[in-house]
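Hi there,

I know you've been waiting on this one. I reran it after we fixed the sequence typo, so this is the corrected version. Both the input and the resulting structure follow.
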Amino acid sequence: MTYNVENVEVPELPPGTVLRFAVSEWRYGRGPVPGEPFDLLITHVRTSSARSYGGQWVWADGHHVDCRPDHPPCQQALVSVAAVRRAAVGGHAGVQPPPAEQVVVDGAAARR
């Protein structure tokens, strides 16, 4: 594997983008269950981190899609640059619109 490659282009994803990553599209993380696909409500893609992973992987921060995003990001994962690129052009099957605002009522989430 080549490390510290130059000029890796990783598109920015707008905060609120929801991605579903297949098992093969992520490696390490804080929050997702190892060996399972997971959804991430993107808050930030650390585009410059791709240089350290041969241009193939990038760190993404975000939230579980069911949590309230009024706190710092609670999930983080090393994800495939290819999946981020597909999402940026709308070709990723897992891309969903940002979720409706949720309000917790008596322990149950209700959409507004």
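Quick highlight: The longest strand covers residues 38-46.

Best,
R. S.
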